[in-house]
Write a structure and sequence with these properties.
The protein contains 11 helices and 6 strands. The chain is mainly alpha-helical.
């Protein structure tokens, strides 16, 4: 009798477990359906907002950035396609495509001088100068350029962004083939204020051994990113991407 009672209890628990499982699936399905409906409502409201503030989004970089962040919060990417509501309403696809093409032109034009690395602020200044001050040209921000470069990465264009001083919003835009190593990036960050680095400087400030420091600096020199200065005792490696931009500010 005890054996039968034990089997019945197990079967009862199994039935109850299946009921709980079914109930949980129903609740999860309802929650998902409710969330989907809410997102659809929010998306429609976002489209209404975009239609109402179309000109402000196109002309005001700060407003445009906030709008992009609103879109991202619900998984909407206005730059994902050149067709559809967002492109027809705002023309954002064409806008960022235009910035990307002009950014490539500026980077190619300055590669011989800076080795394929340019500060984001300098790139923006040159883009503004190339686009002119005509009314039909939208004002562009650093955020616009970063988004345009991000879209180019899909094409494996070789363009990437390197944080130089994240707290101050300083970035380098790389347009040279290959990848900068972590050591290369650390050296550029170490030189962000002075515009140059040296073997002794890397040994003292970063605790590197001289062989490592000299190897990394010579690699940057070989790639055209650094210029060498052997005058004045301690050999210095200058980075035109940094010290030239500081003179333009």
């Amino acid at each position: 009798m005890r054996r039968k009672a034990g089997i019945a209890a197990i079967q009862q628990k199994k039935v109850e477990g299946e009921k709980f499982k079914e109930k949980g699936a129903v609740i999860q399905e309802n929650q998902l359906e409710n969330m989907t409906k809410r997102l659809e409502v929010f998306k429609k409201n976002l489209e209404t907002f975009a239609a109402k503030h179309k000109e402000e989004i196109k002309k005001n970089p700060h407003f445009r950035k906030q709008f992009q962040e609103m879109c991202a919060s619900i998984g909407v990417d206005p730059l994902a396609s050149s067709k559809g509501f967002w492109s027809e309403m705002l023309g954002v696809g064409d806008f960022y495509y235009e910035i990307a093409v002009q950014a490539v032109e500026v980077c190619i034009a300055t590669q011989q001088r800076n080795g394929g690395l340019i500060e984001l602020d300098e790139l923006r200044k040159r883009l503004v100068g190339a686009r002119g001050r005509a009314v039909h040209h939208q004002e562009i921000s650093n955020d616009d350029i970063l988004r345009a470069i991000k879209k180019m990465n899909v094409l494996r264009s070789g363009f990437s962004v390197i944080p130089l001083d994240g707290q101050r919003g300083r970035y380098l835009v790389r347009s040279i083939p290959g990848e900068l190593s972590l050591d290369h990036t650390v050296v550029l960050q170490q030189a962000k204020n002075s515009g140059f680095s040296s073997v002794n400087g890397l040994v003292t400030e970063l605790g590197w051994n001289p062989v490592r420091a000299e190897k990394v600096l010579n690699e940057l020199l070989r790639d055209g990113v650094a210029w060498i200065d052997t005058q004045g005792g301690d050999t210095k490696f200058w980075f035109p991407v940094i010290f030239i931009n500081s003179k333009l500010e």
